[in-house]
Amino acid sequence: MRHLKKRNRLSLPADQRKALLRTLTNSFFKTGEIKTTLGRAKAVREEVERLITLAKRGDMHARRQAGSFLFEKDVLKKLFNETVGNFKTKKGGYTRLIKTMPRKGDNAPTAILQLVT
């Protein structure tokens, strides 16, 4: 039974799904926003919110946990030093999801995921 195991699997095997989420999360923290399909944006949103909550804690264990998910050290430094400063008093809702026009080739719903400032 799959009780309490609800997760968007994105029609991918576990290793490919994890790699996709890691790369999208890295590019999100580099630029501050990404444009992708709606399902992927919702899946990345969960990871981004979790990492910002870790960065708010700010201790060494949180830094190592975030570093195990993020690829690049400069992205990790940016997350802990710059990005988290805006959200010290917020308890959640660090991102904004804006639905956009469907993609031209396959009519897939797209969205823009942004940091709330």
Question: What's a concise summary of this model?
Answer:
With 117 residues, this protein is an alpha+beta fold.
How does this model look, in words?
The protein is α+β, with helices and mostly antiparallel strands and 117 residues long. It is built from 4 helices and 3 strands; from the N terminus they run αβαααββ. The protein has helices spanning 14-31, 38-57, 60-69, 73-81, and strands at 33-37, 95-100, 110-115. Strands 1-3-2 form a 3-stranded antiparallel beta sheet. Helix 1 (14-31) crosses helix 2 and helix 2 (38-57) packs antiparallel against helix 3 (60-69). The longest helix is centred in the middle third of the chain and has 20 residues, at 38-57. The protein starts with 13 loop residues before the first helix and ends with a strand. The model has no long low-confidence stretch (mean pLDDT 94).
H/E element order: HEHHHEE
Catalogue the unreliable spans. none
Number of strands: 3
Query: What is the typical, i.e. mean, pLDDT?
Result: 94
Strand order of the largest sheet: 1-3-2
Give the biggest beta sheet. Answer: 3 strands, antiparallel
**First-to-last CA distance:** 41 Å
Global structural class: alpha+beta
What gyration radius follows from the Cα positions, in whole Å? 15 Å
What's the overall geometry? globular
How much beta, percentage-wise? Answer: 5-15%
Enumerate how many helices there are, as a single number.
Answer: 4
Helix content: 40-55%
